[in-house]
Amino acid sequence: MCEFSQNVSRLLRFGTAWALALLLCAGTGLAVSDFDRTDTSRMLIPVGHTVGVKLFARGVLVVRPPEGGTPANACGLQNGDVILQCAETAVTSTEQFQSLLQKSGGAATELEVRRDGGSVTLCVEPEANEQGVYCIGAWIRDSMAGIGTMTYYDPQTETFGALGHGITDVDTALLMPFSNGSVLPSTVKAVKRGEAGSAGELKGAFDLTRDLGTLYANTTAGVFGTMEETCLPVQPSAVPTGTPTAGKATILSNVRGDTVEAFDVEILKVISHPADERELVLSVTDPDLIATTGGIVQGMSGSPILQNGCIVGAVTHVLLNDPCKGYGISIETMLTASK
């Protein structure tokens, strides 16, 4: 389980715009790890502070299977398709796409769609609803916003990594197609404690009036961007990268206000070639963190893992049936994906 919330969706069915709060969870695979490639000479600043994240898609993502009797279903549009062009015009948002449909006047209109890594062309005939607005009857999404944790900052390249997993669509479980995005200042206001069978959550607020940095990638190993060092939410010293090993470790997390604290964990197992992104098996042992959050909760994903004076990885998932246990990703996998 992971921790992205406050996603925005819109329903383009008979011209209705519909806001829907969603919960985003990581769940896709990532690059295979190779722990022998860890560069111990690289110095990174472990951050551990929450940030607001805004992400805008390239095109619009179809997030639910089109229902029977709609133009979307008739033309062959599928769940998970990304509509890139409408009538040879690049699609940039749900509102702009709806505007393009109005211009069609109900005439057959070509859609360029990305599907399973390839491209297909579909022909749709929009239908007017009772208000005379032309629609195709498809649930689509063009953006997401929520709170996550920044893992590291590289002072040499002025780049950062966060979350330790990609931002995936809650309905399709697909990686959100990336166009642009940014991170914003965030403060933790409250905590919903995690319990067996029910994921906890950091409840925070972020400042929409200014950006800390700009995103350049959304990958299965994290989101990555650039920012000036003076914009960092905290100013700790840089430490070398290292190789995770089974044993005691600490994580840096922001679970109260603006304060980043160190909490004790144990790396129970290191999986060098996992079938998915779960490279590290973790157990929270810190009584203060357990009392405050119940263990790992939504919003903590991306919390840096420190061991033997090095940054070795980041928290990514929680076990739903045991919030004191979860998974992590190695710092090397994140750095490889950041390129």
Measured on Cα atoms, how large is the radius of gyration? 21 Å
What is the topology, as strand order, of the major beta sheet? Answer: 5-12-13-17-16-14
Number of helices: 4
Order of helices and strands: EEEEEHEEHEEEEEEEEEEEEEEHEEEH
Portion of residues in beta strands equals over 45%
N-C termini distance: 26 Å
CATH homolog superfamily of the domain at 30-51 and 144-338: Trypsin-like serine proteases
Low-confidence stretches: 1-40
Share of helical residues: under 10%
CATH class wording of the domain at 30-51 and 144-338: Mainly Beta
Write structural notes for this entry.
The chain is built from 4 helices and 24 strands. The protein has 339 residues and is mostly beta strands. The protein has a domain at 30-51 and 144-338: Beta Barrel (Thrombin, subunit H). The strands form 4 sheets. The chain has a 6-stranded antiparallel β-barrel. A hairpin with a 2-residue loop joins β6 and β7. The longest helix is centred in the N-terminal third of the chain and has 11 residues, at 94-104. The radius of gyration is 21 Å and the shape is elongated. The two termini are 26 Å apart. The relative contact order is 0.22.
Summary of the model, kept short:
The strands form four sheets. A six-stranded antiparallel β-barrel has the order 5-12-13-17-16-14. With 339 residues, it is mainly β. The protein has helices at 71-75, 94-104, 287-293, 331-338; strands spanning 4-5, 8-12, 23-24, 43-46, 50-62, 82-86, 89-90, 109-115, 118-124, 127-128, 134-135, 138-154, 159-162, 178-192, 201-206, 213-219, 222-226, 239-240, 247-256, 259-270, 280-284, 304-307, 310-319, 322-330.
